[in-house]
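Slide 14.
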Amino acid sequence: MKSCLFVGEEIKIYENTDVKAYTAWIISEGFNYKLLPDRILITNRMNNKVTYDHDKFSKLLRRKLEYFDMSRADLAEELGIHEDNVFRWVIGRTMPSKSHMKEIMEILDISEGDLAKCKI
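Slide 15: predicted structure.
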């Protein structure tokens, strides 16, 4: 099985796929799913936290970095974190923590409205 899941991801079901094991794992990772005839669709997180579309957020982040002529290293320095974290946000692999998100919004002048467009 994979090491991480994303909302909207699909897991192909083959003849030898252990569907029960996959669905148990999906639940243990905190996701809901929809079982379709040939695949399992990851639908959303089980908790009440706001879920963002990683791709939409990464596009917004890249656009804002370009607008402010900032590099990933510049943003990482402002946040006091390693550049690899920013790289993962920029490519849409992960999302910033809530505290980093607030700082990013201030640094890059991202409005609540801009961020709301990234919600799932």
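Speaker note: The radius of gyration is 17 Å.
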